[in-house]
């Protein structure tokens, strides 16, 4: 894969992470507003948990792209089944729990 395509994948991953952050912030705001108004927030809280899990995967994917670009082996990122590999598990260990920090 050429460098331009690799960087396009990284840019897409960055946009996806940024969009996820906006979705999470908006959902947190909506939950706060619902709670202040005395409404049931259980469905909104469940949705927020889903957003956070998805965001953790987006961050892990972005970090994996960065790691592969730094190592000079971006082809591994896009290999079918890569996310089922032990290397992916090691590269993303702990990122779901801590939000990717």
Topology overview:
Blueprint: H1 3-36, H2 42-71, H3 86-92, H4 95-98
Helix pairs in contact: 1-2
Structure description:
The chain has 101 residues and is mainly α. It has helices at residues 3-36, 42-71, 86-92, 95-98. α1 packs antiparallel against α2. The longest helix has 34 residues, at 3-36. The chain starts with a helix and ends with a helix.
> Average pLDDT, to the nearest integer?
81
Please report which band the strand proportion falls in: under 5%, 5-15%, 15-25%, 25-35%, 35-45% or over 45%: under 5%
* Low-confidence regions: 84-89, 91-101
Please give the radius of gyration in angstroms. Answer: 17 Å
Helix content: over 70%
How would you describe the shape? elongated
Largest beta-sheet details:
none
Encode the helix/strand succession as letters.
HHHH
Number of helices: 4
Helices and strands: which structural class? mainly alpha
* Secondary structure: number of strands: 0
N- and C-termini, Cα separation: 28 Å
Fill in the keyword field for this structure.
101 residues, mainly alpha, 74% helix
Summarize the structure.
This protein is mainly alpha-helical. 74% of the residues lie in helices and 0% in strands.
């Amino acid at each position: 894969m050429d460098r331009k395509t690799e960087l396009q994948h990284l840019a897409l991953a960055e946009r996806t992470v940024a969009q996820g952050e906006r979705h999470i912030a908006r959902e947190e705001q909506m939950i706060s507003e619902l709670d202040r108004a005395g409404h049931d927030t259980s469905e909104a809280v469940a949705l927020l948990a889903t957003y956070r899990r998805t965001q953790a995967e987006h961050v892990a994917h972005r970090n994996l792209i960065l790691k592969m670009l730094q190592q000079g082996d971006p082809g591994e990122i896009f290999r079918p089944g890569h996310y089922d590999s032990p290397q992916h598990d090691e590269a993303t260990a702990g990122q779901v729990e801590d939000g990717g920090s």
